[in-house]
Amino acid sequence: MTASISDNPLLQTEGLPKFDRIRAEHVEPAIRELLARLNADLDALERDVKPTWEATVARLSAITEPIGLAWGVVNHLMGVQNSPELRQAHAAVEGDVVETFMRIGQSVPLYRALKGLREGPEWKKLDPAQHRIIDASIRDAELSGVGLEGEARERFQDIERELAELSTRFTNNVIDANKAWSMTLTKPEEVEGLPPSALAMAAQMAKQGLAEGAPEPTPEKGPWRITLDAPSYVPFLEHSRRPELREKLYRAFVTRASSGDSDNGTLIERILTLRREKARLLGYSSFAEVSLAAKMAPGVQAVEQLLGELRNAARSRARKEHTELTEYARRKTGSASLELKLWDVPFWAERLREERYAYTDEELRPYFALPRVLDGLFDTAKRLFGVTVRAADGEVPVWDPSVRFFRVADESGKDIAAFYLDPYSRPATKRGGAWMNGALDRKRKPDGGLRLPVAYLVCNATPPVGNKPALLTFREVETLFHEFGHGLQHMLTRVDYPEAAGINNVEWDAVELPSQFMENWCFHEETLSKLARHVDSGESLPKHLQDKIRAGRIYRAASMSLRQVYFATLDLELHHRYQPGSDGQAGFLEVQKRVAAENTVLPPLPEDRFLCSFTHIFAGGYAAGYYSYKWAEVLSADAFSAFEEAGLADSQALARTGRRFRDTVLALGGSRHPLEVFQEFRGRAPSTQPLLKQTGLLDSQELESTAPMM
User: Fold this and answer.
1) In contact, 289 and 300? CB cutoff 8 Å
2) Which H helix or E strand runs over 498?
3) Torsion angle of alpha carbons 644, 650, 653, 657, nearest 10°?
């Protein structure tokens, strides 16, 4: 082994990644070295694999772990510290990584051994978690084309390689499109209505790319740079009093990555074509059926039934909400014939919300300083689940100075997990959105020791401006709670097999249960009192504002619900019924238009290309699975209703219910089917009733008529 290889930080297999040492030039040599080792180990495995747990699952886990760890770090950096050099290195080896993992999925000797294990004498000696892992491995092998031979097998492999490459290109195009567009404003009247925090951020953004010697931008005098990144885009649409500038920004946003070098339109057709061909090769009639074969929902019909129920509950009320908003805007403008455009809705919705609930996002922001919010979040975790979170900054290397590190201890004070928190938006190097990923999975080592789980929690909140801590919007607070919910399931797992620890082997449409469940606590009185204190005075958020936040939770709930149903229906339609290429190059746009007619109040613009930046379904694992947000929302609302029934003001009852939630939903991970886990916690099958009630979409007289979900 060469000196450069031996010193490569991506080759370490113990401890946490050396983010202070990892560079783009380490990627290709490390990954090639690890792939060579893995392929040699696979040769040996396939020659003498036996139908036992140790000889199949445990051995495969041991030989694939080094590449899993290294490739996980590379993909993490692609999301949070993107650069041309890293992209090039990633692209150079991505195809080989895909091919090697395809080889594992299509290994006939391994597949036969797993089936032999399931049918042999050792099966009875294994625990339920091991049964689940083996069943999932057999299913995944079948969905990976293990049964294909000859030309069909070669074609399947070509499809998988191309899909991986297209997915990466899709994400990179969205990042590039976001980076390429901005709007610099120089006159105070152009930023009229923008709150101080948005002005400060816009001035801060304007500093980038300034000519040498140019005067420093200020929040008061500008210039101000507006971008397509959410912390910039959302406040501008909600507050700018210049409809023509809102329109310009909105049109840029919905046409991102749809032209020039970063055009994802052709990629979409290709992705959908390849997915459909892949499904046919596997013996399914659509890619949606392939996707659902590994999910909690029993089939496309069950998903469409749920979406139909939610659509029926939301659509007429969403239309009423729009009529009400239009009438409000007409009164305020004195224009009796005013018709709201798509870029007007956020602005007037925010004005009506401010008037109805008598508070603004900006008024709340000083109460949500990130350090205080974190204290409140960690206090909630302690009260509900008995875990203590403590800062451990400086103990491990990080990829950006703003990244923090924390350790998690159980009730006895023993460390059980840790996590990184990357809280702020960095449009030039970090993709949008928020997510949780595993850095390390919990694992029982061969010597009996335990490797503790470590999570990456990534948000894109408004960064600090000046010398104040970051002041979050309430939605950013909810997002933080959401990602921490994912993190809790990863960190509080008690499963010792990495294949089913944390969120691993949890059906995709159940993965959002803990995250959406945690959002409920942002509205809980005691929790809100602890995390919402004024950044300067330390005073608690006044009770009348807390009450208004809770009341405002169902503000335009029908419109929000219908929006998610629209996305989920469109996703399912593209992956189930649509035949790519049948309607020419842009056939998917016709599907969008048709689905929008049934699922939106205001139709999209003719030039709307939001699908070109819909990374969730074209690059993020949600293909034919976007419905999972609503499916899991049903589960999370129902789970939270157990706490409501116990009594939200009764701390002992909350702790008892919280420990039960911890010991089932958070602890069992993918070791058991999510329906079984849910029923153990809740004592019954899940129902849509609590969600419809929580979002104000169910009248009290309708409560008894809503059937269980499954």
Assistant:
1) yes
2) none
3) 40
Q: Give the Cα separation of 415 and 408 in Å (integer).
A: 6
- Please tell me the distance from the alpha carbon of residue 134 to that of residue 141, in angstroms, as a whole number: 10
Which helix (H) or strand (E) is 440 found in, with range? Answer: strand 435-440
* pLDDT of 709 strictly over 80: no
Q: Which two tokens stand for residue 571?
A: 């996703």
pLDDT on residue 553 = 87
Q: What is the largest CA-CA distance in the chain?
A: 81
Specify whether the CB–CB gap between 143 and 85 falls below 8 A. no
pLDDT score recorded for residue 582 = 63
CA distance 459 to 361: 19
Other C-beta atoms closer than 10 Å to the C-beta of 631 total: 29
437/435 Cα distance (integer angstroms):
7
**C-alpha span between 567 and 588 (Å, rounded):** 13
Q: How far is CA 621 from CA 53, 128, 509, 571, 629, in A?
A: 29, 27, 11, 12, 13
Q: Which of 350, 483, 512, 573 is catalytic?
A: 483
By the 10 Å C-beta count (0-12 exposed, 13-18 middle, 19+ buried), 598 is classed as exposed
Please give the full DSSP string across 194-228, using - where no structure is assigned. Answer: --HHHHHHHHHHHTTTPPTTPPPPBTTTB-EEEES
Token pair 């979406």 is at which residue? 307
CA gap 382, 388 in Å, rounded: 6
pLDDT above 50 (res 704): no
Angle between helices 370-385 and 651-661 (to 10 degrees): 80
Phi-psi region of 472 (alpha: psi -120 to 50; beta: other; left: phi over 0): beta
Dihedrals phi, psi of 174, to nearest 5 degrees: -70, -45
Q: Checking DSSP bridges between strand 443-444 and strand 388-391, what pairing results, if any?
A: unpaired
DSSP structural state of residue 52: S
Cis before 231? omega within 30: no
Kindly indicate the confidence band of residue 1, based on its pLDDT and cuts at 50, 70 and 90.
Answer: very low
Q: What is the pLDDT of residue 209?
A: 67
Q: What pLDDT, on a 0 to 100 scale, did the predictor assign at position 158?
A: 94
Please enumerate in sequence order all residues whose Cβ is within 8 A of that of 388, keeping only pairs 6 or more positions apart, or say none.
378, 382, 408, 409, 410, 413
Bridge-partner residues for 436, per DSSP?
457
Q: Are 262 and 173 in contact (CB under 8 A)?
A: yes
- Closest residue by Cα to residue 527 from 363, 353, 372: 372
Strand partners, 443: 451
512 tagged catalytic: no
704: phi > 0 → left, psi -120 to 50 → alpha, else beta; which?
alpha
**Alpha-carbon 257 to chain mean position:** 20
* CB contact set of 560 (below 8 Å; sequence gap of 6+): none
Under 8 Å between Cβ of 461 and 423:
yes
The whole-number pLDDT of residue 13 equals 85
Residue given tokens 């995250």 in the structure block: 515
Amino acid in the structure at residue 302: A
Tell me the β-bridge partners of 417: 408
pTM of the model: 0.85
Q: Distance (Å, rounded) from C-alpha 484 to C-alpha 458? A: 10
Q: Which of 152-161, 204-213, 629-638 has the lowest mean pLDDT?
A: 204-213
